[in-house]
Amino acid sequence: MSPRPPAIVILGPGSLGAARRVQQTLAGSIVHGLAERVTEADSGFTNFGETLRQLFTDDVPLVVFCAAGIVIRTLAPLLQDKRVEPPVIAVAEDGSAVVPLLGGLRGVNELARAVGDGLGTLPAITTTGEVRFGATIEQVPAGYEVRNPGDSKRFMSDLLAGERVRLLGVAPWLRDSKLPFGDTGRLSIRVTPQDVEPAEGELVIHPHSVLIALTGGGSDLLQHAMSALKSRNLALQAVAAIIAAESEAADPGVLATAEALHRPLRFLTGARSAEALLAAARPKLANIPFSDGLIAIAVEEEPIEVTTIGRGRGRLAVVGLGPGTADWLAPEARRELVSATDIVGYETYVRMAGPFRADQAVHPSDNREELDRARHALRLAAQGRSVAVVSSGDPGIFAMAAAVMEALHSSDEPAWHGVEIAMIPGISAAQAAAARVGAPLGHDFCVLSLSDNLKPWEVIDLRLRAAASADLAIALYNPLSRARPWQFDKALEILRSYRQPDTPVVLGRNVGRPDESVRVLPLGELVPEQVDMRTVVLIGSSRTRRFPRAGGNAWLYTPRWYGAPSKASAGC
Ligand code: SAH
Q1: Which of 56, 78, 278, 570 is spaced 20 to 30 A from 28 at the CA atom?
Q2: Which of 139-148, 156-165, 396-405 has the highest mean pLDDT?
Q3: Nearest to 65 by CA among 16, 127, 121
Q4: Exposed/middle/buried for 69, CB within 10 Å: 0-12, 13-18, 19+?
């Protein structure tokens, strides 16, 4: 601890009682109070910021009863060298929380513990004992799991306060650390795969050292696996992985067991029986403590590196990128792009989704055959890879999600059906274009693709008429391409036979991309030359309203009600 006695700083009388309790645990400390509000402090000050900065500069440890953010902002200009800064602690006004902020190398955690003792509160220690012990039990390495994590903070603070600990079981990272081990004492760390309740003063750490091999096809495999573990008194938390045969990659019992235990699945080719699977996974295995034909269990001393066993369960995420800008990409989509091992998609969208890391395999395609791309993605995922199939807008709207479903539906490959599939929604072009001009889709609307590549024109014709006669607002995707020269004209003809020429239309081109353009015009003025494949066309209903927007252009909206018109007038 810093040699100078700490200053306890309070801003109001409500903190005085807590400050006095802290003072009793900190020899020589003085309570400084804001003079205009606290009259009974040991010392008064008028300017909080100046006082705090002066004390800090004078190397006085600070215990400040106010929001952590205020303390940080006040001292931020002075922060330079963590080795010479005095400890600084923020304490909630009423003493209910103690947060060490600065001075990790000068004993802030010890000071925080003393403050916490005075207040009967556990300090929010964020640095743990890592620095001192070369190991921490609050965040254990991969392959281990603390059974009673709620106790680890207290445990660590006891160690930092000088207690010793017994190590029971095998854990090289603990053994090689500088934790204060001893053969006696109240505290112990037990490293075990056994299903034991922690004793008083004991931290139980489960190594992921148990392998369960399953033979699918049976009923209630999960229940069976649980009782097998129980019969050997093994903790669920000690399970490293579930092993199954490649041919059972889509077995519901196998998948449900892995999901319920939150453990990875590993699939092996060749072996079928549970014992043979274990033997293939761990060739040096000496004994199998449990085997009943359906299930076999192996237990090792240390965590098992499961990624070397067979292949994992693959994942295929169909990721909606939104219209283009990263601002319209969901955080979930971003996570999938970061965690994917492989990225599959039309090259424009792959570029839009990037950049990717060198360790990620990118599979751009220029072909428009979505089904091929979907199969390619499933094939990769069935090898255990984590595949992101990228799609613009929402993947479920005229895009890759349906292609992936179709490819899967038409396959009877267990490895494909065993893939974990996730659809990550995105903002669709119609929503993006609508957002630019107000709320043209504020009431019932429908979404139609004008592409007749995969459906006959007669169907499009029929649907356009149905949508127009039902007075729905309409979003037209894939409005026009060189291969489909006359269709848009025909669509306009149909729409005009149901809608007035002054019906508002939105042309959103490249919405959310650098060369975005959004225009509002009346249906009567719309000509095919104004649209292309990068345009989404929104056709208002008979209720869609237009009114001037400050700064030019227009606002559009389709009111939420139906019936008597409001004061706003229709049309363009
Ligand atoms: N899944 C996409 C749609 C794919 S179909 C989505 O939900 O948005 C392709 C059509 O979508 C294009 O022809 C165009 O009509 C529309 N589109 C896609 N992105 C667009 C964008 N950024 N701006 C305008 N229209 C877009």
Answers
A1: 78
A2: 396-405
A3: 16
A4: exposed
Q: pLDDT tens digits for 397-429?
A: 999 999 999 999 999 999 999 999 999 999 999
Q: Ligand 1 mean position to 395 CA, how many Å?
A: 10
DSSP for 86-110 reads PPEEEE-TTSS-EEEEE-GGGTHHH
Stronger pLDDT, 12 or 564, i.e. the higher one? 12
The secondary structure of the chain in percent helix, strand, coil, rounded to multiples of 5, reads: 35, 25, 40
* Cα–Cα distance, 431 to 445 (Å, whole number): 11
Nearest CA owner, ligand 1 atom 18: 429
C-alpha span between 102 and 126 (Å, rounded): 11
User: Cβ(118)–Cβ(25) under 8 Å?
Assistant: yes
Pocket-testing residue among 348, 474, 516, 535, ligand 1, by greatest number of atoms within 8 A of Cβ:
535
Whole-number Å distance, alpha carbon 555 to ligand 1 midpoint, is 22
Minimum CA distance residue for ligand 1 atom 26 = 429
Confidence of residue 552 (pLDDT cuts 50, 70, 90): confident
Give the residue whose CA is nearest to atom 6 of ligand 1. 393
479 touches 535 (CB < 8 A): yes
Phi, psi of 444 (to 5 degrees): -55, 135
Ligand 1 atom at minimal distance to the Cα of residue 516 = 23
Handedness of CA 71, 74, 76, 81 (dihedral sign): negative
Mutate which of 327, 392, 513, 515 for ligand 1? The one with the most ligand atoms within 8 Å of its CB, which is 392
**481 Cβ inside 6 Å of ligand 1:** no
User: 112: which 2 tokens?
Assistant: 């925080």
* Ligand 1 pocket: which of 390, 447, 477, 538 to mutate (most atoms within 8 A of CB): 477
Q: Tell me the C-alpha to C-alpha distance, in Å, between residue 48 and each of 9, 13, 36, 75.
A: 9, 15, 11, 11
Cα(534) to ligand 1 centroid in Å equals 6
Q: Which two tokens stand for residue 99?
A: 């947060």
Ligand 1 neighbourhood includes 323 CB (under 6 angstroms): yes
> Of all protein residues, whose CA lies closest to atom 17 belonging to ligand 1?
429
Peptide bond into 395 cis (omega under 30): no
Write down all domains in the chain, each with its CATH number in brackets: 7-126 (3.40.50.11220), 144-207 (no CATH), 210-311 (3.30.420), 314-427 (3.40.1010.10), 430-557 (3.30.950.10)
Give the whole-angstrom CA distance, residue 243 versus residue 303.
15
How large a percentage of the chain has pLDDT more than 90?
71
Largest alpha-carbon pair distance within the chain? Answer: 92
Ligand 1 centre distance from Cα of residue 466 (Å):
23
